[in-house]
Amino acid sequence: APPPPAPAVEGGRVMDRVVAVIEGQVLTQSELEMEARVALIQRGAVQAAALPLDEQTLRGALELSINQRLQVLSADRLQAFPAEPAEVEARLDAFRARLGGEAALQRFLDRHGVDRDALVAVLARGLRAERILDSRVRLKAQVSEAEVRHHYDAHRDLYPGEFDQAARTAIREELVRARYGELAAQALAEVRRSAQVRRVAPFAREARR
After folding, report:
1. Bridge partners, residue 25, by sequence
2. CB within 8 Å of 158: residues ≥ 6 apart
């Protein structure tokens, strides 16, 4: 196997390190950390804006990053699923609000040495990946009334009340969520099957075990 790409060096100082190469695209440590923080903040973990990230967090972020990049690269080949500017702006607005406003957003960018365009690119890629995956699995994840009834009958201990509209809705949402997750995992595995992904950093190689 070829040797791993060396860290970028400037003036004798290591500037960044290659974590993985995804279909020929290099993913660096700083890019991965940025994407990990963005994903955590979007989920409400605002403390991730400043706290150090452990290797377990980075491994999870790497898998997400690989999935997103592969989906977007596939869509790019077909010129499909562009990110609408208004949708990206809405994501940026929500991210800004999570952090606590414009000043907090600028502090976040300054702290991690990235500009607004880099953040927007991360948000846009995440948005596109969500839409691409959703287009592949949403219809397949739907459940029939018969499946809802069967689940109710098989789990009466969990649903002591009547089989009314509220019960149907709750069961349907539960079944769709579970099926969606299974189908999404299958779709992502299919995308990865023929992809060229080389993990370089030690923690990145550990992620696939």
Report:
1. 22
2. none
Domain-located, residue 2:
no
**Has residue 163 been placed in a domain?**
yes
Q: What confidence score (pLDDT) does residue 15 get?
A: 62
Contact between 98 and 43 (Cβ < 8 Å): no
- Give the sign of the dihedral formed by CA 124, CA 125, CA 129, CA 132: positive
Question: pLDDT class for 59, splitting at 50, 70, 90?
Answer: very high
Torsion sign, CA atoms 201, 203, 204, 206: positive
Q: What is the pLDDT of residues 15-52, one digit of tens each?
A: 689 999 999 999 999 999 999 999 999 999 999 999 99
CATH number at residue 63: 1.10.4030.10
Q: Per-residue pLDDT tens for 184-195? A: 999 999 999 989
| Mean pLDDT within 130-153 | 97
Question: What single-letter amino acid sits at 147?
Answer: E
The total domain count for the chain is 1
Distances (CA, A) of 27 to 64, 70, 108, 138, 199: 12, 12, 21, 30, 10
Q: What is the pLDDT of residue 170?
A: 94
Q: What is the largest CA-CA distance in the chain?
A: 72
Classified as helix, coil or strand, 27 is: strand
